[in-house]
Design goal:
Layout (H helix, E strand, L loop, with lengths): L2 H4 L3 H13 L2 H8 L3 H15 L4 E4 L2 E4 L1 H29 L3 E7 L1 H18 L3 E7 L13 E4 L8 E9 L1 E5 L1 H7 L13 E4 L6 E6 L2 E6 L5 E2 L2 H9 L4 E5 L4 H6 L3 E2 L9 E8 L6 H13 L4
Parallel strand pairs: 3-4, 3-5, 8-11, 8-12
Antiparallel strand pairs: 1-2, 5-14, 6-14, 7-12, 7-13, 9-10
Helix pairs in contact: 2-3, 2-4, 2-5, 3-4
Length: about 300
Amino acid sequence: MSTLGKLRDLNKLHAFVRVAERRSFTRAAEELHTTPSMVSKHMRDLEADLGFSVLSRSTHGVALTDAGEGLFRNCCQLFANLDEYVVEARNQQSGPFGSLRVQAPGDVARWILSPLVASFVRLHPQVRVELSAEAATLQSLENGFDVIVASKKPPTPGVVEREIGRIVHVVCATPDYLETSGRPRTPQDLRNHNCLVNTMSAVREWPFQTGGQQVSVEVKGTVSSNSSAVLIDVALNHAGIIRVPLYSVEAELANGSLERLFGDETSSPERLLAYFPKTKHCPEKITEFVGFLARRFTGG
């Protein structure tokens, strides 16, 4: 049998990769559910088949030779290509499956994604969704998240973006606050009011569309928070004026506990986007989830 034919024994190559990763026969054996002596035999047989050494053994442990480093890189690429093919083939036959890690800011996770995720897993019971309610960081995709949902692009290179909807914001306050502090007639009047600010925005300005033009009004107040839910609760205690997504206060506007200000003079809708890694063959669990969000999301 040729050397190439002998190398088609994936058990040996798989054992070699585990030893190379763990630098230990014992730890490799534990992961492979076998014995250290069997792993050692696989390595001896592999080196005999190759005709050169891939491991350097000493009392300090196991290290890779230069040739072993090259074989390790090639094995990793081989198994990665095989995994990619299996995922693609399985997706074509059985649809989305597996774990899906999604990250979104707390308000977006609570009001937008929570009900949509519930509907998605009912449609695709082979998918397990982990929804993390926190803003994206530079390491989000590197740390294994499959999809990031945000209004601003996360600081991560090599991602694909897709708009899934637009969020309409409203400015509102309780009738008691407006009776006590007066009702602002124009957005500029907000400068004289207690505005409850969301600290997720670095700029303390609220944008408005006035006469076809966009204007920004600088606001300030006695309470701020990174949670729209907290700001709504504070406003319901008659403490000030809030600017929040329409979907988060529809019930309060309907029952009159909050009143919308300025009528149709509102801020421009905010784009909500999904970001995911740029790969040659994107797993169907990701493409189907992002497409589902785009089809089902409404911003108010």
